[in-house]
């Protein structure tokens, strides 16, 4: 049984894809959700209102453009002003780009790192300060099998996710004395817009090598996050969970 009832969970990039599955799953498990999205659109606000009514939980929407350090700074100070506790942080938002090294500009690698890595670091610094005061907390970082295995033409994405993995492991060590656990989830293909962006060739190659012969549903990733956020995983930290349908 997952024990996330009454917890407050901050999720980035939860207006679609895996993040949206996190939002739904945590609200349904009785957690208050602090939803951090790039912009508040009507459809998303409506979804949050309906979900909140259905589950009886509170959903508070914040905005931050993770490509901007100032925007993240403003979000963190808005979060502090609410004086809310944060029990769980899920660094989920991310982008993917494709291109062989010789066709990739340094700037485009930096742009991917900004969203997939530096933004996560900045948000973690801000939120960990609250968790350290509380002497408890859970941080879940969205990595990828792309940060573990080598895929030609995915240097920017893969390196940014490898950085997330190293960050997860070091943060687990640094924050353990404060009762904070830090883990990462590394999926292969999950049915979202990002998977479509990866293109036919990459999708076919992964499918060919996947034992279960299908892609993951976003809610299958959410089930792992529910477990890692809960006290059921109280002795697990510094780990990277592959969730890949038996990729070989
Ligand atoms: N899908 C897969 O196959 C797969 C596999 C392994 C790992 N992952 C990882 O899982 C996480 C979620 O991926 P997904 O598949 O759900 O991707 P997705 O459907 O493309 O969603 C990406 C999310 O990140 C947000 N985002 C992107 N740039 C942003 C920015 N500058 N500021 C704020 N938010 C921003 C998007 O917001 P907007 O709607 O505003 O763009 C969206 O909410 C990512 O970290 C990804 O790397 C995915």
Describe the structure.
There is one protein chain. The chain is α/β, with parallel strands linked by helices. About 45% of the residues lie in helices and about 15% in strands. The protein has helices at about 15-30, 40-55, 70-80, 105-135, 155-175, 195, 200-210, 220-230; strands spanning about 10, 30-35, 60-65, 90, 135-140, 180-185, 240-245. It has a 7-stranded parallel beta sheet with strand order 3-2-1-4-5-6-7, sandwiched between helices. The longest helix has 29 residues, at about 105-135. It binds NADP nicotinamide-adenine-dinucleotide phosphate (NAP). NADP nicotinamide-adenine-dinucleotide phosphate binds near residues 15, 115, 192 and 195.
């Amino acid at each position: 049984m997952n024990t996330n009832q009454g917890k407050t969970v901050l999720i980035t990039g939860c207006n679609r894809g895996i993040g949206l599955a996190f939002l739904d799953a945590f609200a349904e498990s009785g957690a208050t959700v602090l939803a951090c999205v790039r912009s508040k659109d009507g459809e998303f606000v409506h979804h949050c209102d309906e979900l909140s009514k259905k589950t009886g939980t509170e959903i508070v929407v914040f905005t931050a453009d993770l490509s901007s350090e100032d925007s993240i700074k403003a979000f963190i100070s808005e979060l502090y002003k609410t004086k809310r506790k944060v029990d769980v942080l899920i660094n989920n938002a991310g982008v993917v780009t494709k291109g062989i090294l010789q066709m990739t500009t340094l700037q485009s690698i930096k742009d991917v790192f900004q969203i997939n890595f530096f933004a996560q670091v900045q948000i973690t610094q801000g939120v960990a300060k609250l968790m350290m005061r509380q002497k408890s907390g859970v941080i879940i970082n969205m990595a990828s099998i792309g940060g573990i295995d080598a895929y030609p033409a995915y240097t920017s994405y893969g390196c940014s996710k490898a950085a997330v993995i190293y960050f997860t492991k070091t943060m687990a060590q640094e924050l353990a004395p404060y009762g904070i656990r830090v883990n990462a989830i590394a999926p292969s293909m999950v049915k979202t817009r990002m998977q479509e962006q990866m293109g036919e060739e990459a999708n076919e190659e992964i499918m060919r090598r996947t034992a279960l012969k299908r892609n993951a549903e976003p809610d299958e990733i959410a089930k792992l996050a529910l477990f890692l956020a809960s006290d059921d995983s109280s002795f697990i930290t510094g780990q990277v969970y592959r969730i890949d349908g038996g990729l070989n």
